[in-house]
């Protein structure tokens, strides 16, 4: 029942928000601070463009467009599912067992944990940059391109959410693996802020076919910016993001269930 | 014998207790080193010799600084913050040794552990894929001085931030601001040599430059002779000033302390 899931998620998130609101000054400061931390990457991009008009053949508005779509997708996915990365900690401390006896999916319980308006701070720089970059893009706006923007952000949210849950599920097996899986989640967020043509070709193949980060914003972005694909993939790849998103999410759900089924609790 | 070496030794043991977890962290440090290297490679292709660095310097900078994240502790504050929030700091204050000295010893043990477990992989991986600038014997010797100084400055800053919890009660907002400063103004996000004009001037004078940019410059052999002495002096001066500020704040905090619920 998807409606029920959304309702339970909302209810639990609201409970955590009310808890966070007990310390209003701290909550406001944290929201600002969260926004400031996520501003850093865009600050770096701006500083780089003070030194060169084009980087890897892309202009500042084009890179900021990629940054905006990537950061917005990642921020939304992080708000929805980011705390699943704490699974290893819950397993170590035995708190996952407490979640299992409650009548709500443990995935929802972990995802809503510590849900606070401060997480919304991440959306501010991302949406601001996207709003500023879009009118500055030198593209011929057609209906298809305009529709592609929200479509790619939604697909990006789904891909990143799937990756959050997938990498969290790995912690059922590799309890200490959290440090390494961050290279997929946070690393993926960093990578997709830049044109993938900056990176080595084999690396781009890896993030296209193995971990499908290229479908967050690079492939659809090539369509919006009307650019040639350096890997020479067929035109259809540019519209494949929603399909890739569905595959990633289905796989994530499957792996999560498998992990939960094989969970044996810790200790003696 | 003083108790401090023991504090440092037990911190070293504690931080080497989960080696797999530390190695997992260094995998992510390495992945970011590669991504940052490709980004800088593209920038240096557009602007060769930017800020006095050549391409090899820029790439070496990425791997070296990713290797330094653990020991210099760019991302996390001190455990002391949690103890102030929970009230456990009362136990720390009962001890017959100074609060600052105790936590400094603990942090030096932690830094050594992270140097052993987290710094190797990024450097080795970088050398296998790219040509990194090898440090000469003098540069390496100077770097061996600069790295502990960087840890000292880093500790001094994190200690000040942690002590603020005595007044703020919930210090997470301040911790986040501190993270922004230490990421951006240390050179971790972009080398400070890329920063234009006045922004670069300010960034190079702030204490965060002593964490990453100055030791990296020393490793790359950018600071030699009297310039090297000035670089190490810059680090030492900030370390002394910030540690002194921390000592003063400790005195004030002792008077301020109210343990929650008691």
Automatic annotation (TrEMBL), chain B:
Entry's transmembrane regions: 138-161, 173-199, 228-253
InterPro entries membership: ABC-2_transporter-like (IPR010390)
Keyword Nucleotide-binding assigned: no
Domain of life assignment: Bacteria
Keywords: Membrane, Transmembrane, Transmembrane helix
Record carries keyword Isomerase: no
Signal peptide region: none
Protein name as catalogued: ABC transporter permease
Taxonomic source organism: Actinomadura rudentiformis
């Amino acid at each position: 029942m998807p409606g029920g899931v959304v309702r339970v998620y909302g209810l639990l998130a609201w409970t955590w928000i009310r808890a966070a609101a007990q310390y209003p000054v701290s909550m406001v400061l944290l929201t600002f601070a969260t926004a400031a931390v996520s501003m850093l990457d865009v600050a770096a991009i701006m500083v780089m463009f003070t030194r060169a008009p084009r980087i890897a053949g892309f202009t500042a508005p084009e890179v900021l467009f990629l940054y905006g779509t990537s950061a917005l997708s990642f921020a939304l996915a992080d708000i929805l599912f980011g705390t699943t990365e704490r699974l290893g900690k819950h397993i170590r401390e035995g708190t996952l067992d407490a979640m299992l006896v409650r009548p709500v999916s443990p995935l929802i319980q972990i995802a809503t944990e510590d849900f606070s308006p401060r997480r919304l701070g991440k959306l501010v720089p991302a949406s601001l940059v996207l709003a500023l970059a879009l009118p500055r893009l030198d593209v011929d706006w057609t209906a298809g391109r305009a529709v592609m923007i929200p479509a790619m952000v939604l697909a990006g949210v789904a891909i990143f959410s799937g990756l959050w849950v997938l990498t969290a599920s790995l912690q059922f097996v590799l309890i200490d693996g959290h440090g390494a899986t961050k290279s997929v989640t946070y690393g993926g967020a960093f990578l997709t802020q830049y044109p993938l043509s900056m990176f080595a070709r084999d690396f781009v193949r890896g993030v296209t076919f193995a971990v499908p980060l290229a479908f967050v914003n690079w492939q659809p972005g090539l369509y919006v910016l009307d650019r040639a694909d350096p890997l020479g993939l067929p035109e259809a790849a540019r519209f494949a993001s929603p399909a890739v998103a569905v595959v990633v999410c289905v796989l994530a759900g499957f792996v999560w269930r498998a992990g939960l089924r094989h969970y044996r609790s810790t200790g003696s | 014998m003083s108790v401090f070496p023991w504090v440092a030794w037990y911190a070293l043991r504690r931080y080497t207790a989960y080696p797999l977890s530390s190695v997992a962290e260094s995998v992510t440090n390495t992945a970011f080193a590669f991504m940052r290297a490709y980004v800088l490679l593209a920038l240096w292709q557009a602007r060769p010799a930017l800020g006095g660095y050549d391409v090899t310097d820029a790439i070496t900078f990425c791997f070296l600084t990713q290797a330094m994240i653990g020991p210099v502790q760019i991302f996390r504050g001190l455990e002391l913050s949690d103890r102030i929030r929970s009230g456990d700091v009362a136990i720390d204050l009962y001890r017959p040794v100074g609060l600052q000295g105790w936590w400094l010893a603990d942090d030096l043990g932690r830094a050594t552990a992270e140097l052993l477990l987290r710094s190797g992989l990024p450097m080795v991986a970088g050398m296998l894929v790219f040509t990194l600038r090898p440090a000469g014997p003098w540069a390496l010797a100077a770097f061996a001085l600069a790295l502990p100084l960087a840890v000292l400055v880093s500790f001094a800053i994190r200690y000040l931030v942690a002590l603020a919890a005595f007044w703020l009660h919930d210090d997470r907002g301040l911790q986040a601001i501190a993270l922004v400063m230490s990421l951006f103004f240390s050179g971790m996000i972009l080398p400070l040599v890329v920063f234009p004009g006045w922004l670069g001037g300010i960034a190079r004078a702030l204490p965060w430059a002593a964490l990453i940019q100055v030791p990296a410059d020393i490793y790359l052999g950018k600071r030699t002779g009297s310039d090297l002495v000035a670089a190490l002096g810059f680090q030492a001066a900030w370390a002394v000033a910030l540690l002194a500020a921390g000592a003063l704040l400790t005195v004030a905090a002792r008077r301020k302390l109210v343990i929650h619920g008691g």
